[in-house]
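Summary of Year 1 activities. Much of the first year was spent building the evaluation harness for sequence design. The harness presents a backbone, in tokenized form, and records the residue chosen at every position. We chose the following record to illustrate the format because it has been used consistently in internal testing since the harness was completed.
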């Protein structure tokens, strides 16, 4: 990880967005814990994996949360207190 990215993460966490970032991380962790296990090879193709829809929904939500985190952290990249 680049030093400027580390600095941006530190500024975002210690700044006004810290509680929001923490909430996003907590939700990601909770969703990861609820995530059904990945099916064995060939199971999805057979149509016998009952958790496929739930797994897809959870993974999509985790991705949205990651994108929200990235948007917040990117505001602090570029050297300034509030980013570019």
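For this record, the design step produced the sequence shown next.
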């Amino acid at each position: 990880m680049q030093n400027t990215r580390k600095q941006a993460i530190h500024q975002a966490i210690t700044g006004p967005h810290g509680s929001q970032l923490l909430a996003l991380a907590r939700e990601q962790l909770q969703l990861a814990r609820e995530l059904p296990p990945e099916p064995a090879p060939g199971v999805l193709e057979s149509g016998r994996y009952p958790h496929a829809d739930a797994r897809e929904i959870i993974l999509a939500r985790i991705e949205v949360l990651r994108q929200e985190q990235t948007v917040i952290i990117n505001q602090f990249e570029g050297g300034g207190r509030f980013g570019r």
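The chain has a mean pLDDT of 86. Quantitative recovery figures across the full test set are reported in Table 2.
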